[in-house]
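Annex B. Sample input.
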Amino acid sequence: MDKNNIPRHIAIIMDGNRRWAKKKGLPPMEGHRQGYEQFKKISDLCNKLGVKILTVYAFSLENWKRSKTEVFYLMNLLKRGLQEQKDFFIKNKVRLNVIGQIEKLPPGLKKLVLKIMKETKDNKERILNLAISYGGREEIIEAVKKIIKKKINPSKINEKIFSQHLYTAGQPDPDIIIRTSGEQRLSGFLPWQSVYTELYFSSKLWPDFTGEDLEEVIKEFQSRQRRFGK
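Annex B, continued. Sample output.
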């Protein structure tokens, strides 16, 4: 692995927690718990390798349709995780950026999200984009609404202007998107930002995706030639 050619921005669809639990005869919640433990390891490795931006798909808008018990557990897991990681964000100068419809979150989680985002907004070293209650088409619709509200002249609207109204405003697009569990689609994840992003689909379920797997993905990324249409 060429440590001078580490992807600046890695995005991950952390898929397969429930299937992992089912294969082991465990309840779905145990799969989500193990998925969170794996996220911490991968996030720490990204930090050590020098990845500047990590974007993870934690909870989609469609996930609200799951059972109340599972949604309740996931919301509490997210809240506990953010409480645990708060000091890490501050110590390592990581800016937390929760992308998605924050207004849909339970009051306690919403309050915590806004608090940590405010406390870390000036951190410059790294960014963690946590996609919660996120939908890619909804992100684009929200950007359109913001542009209309600002009454920007249509003749002035271009890709740069539009990107400035997305949840990831001011950030470079992902260099690579990783999806685990064998599914080979993006499922509404970063549709605008991913037009020239490299894609990597792993057959491993998320709780089984290790640091060694991430290093293999980076090696694969380094072997590809990115022409951007040229």
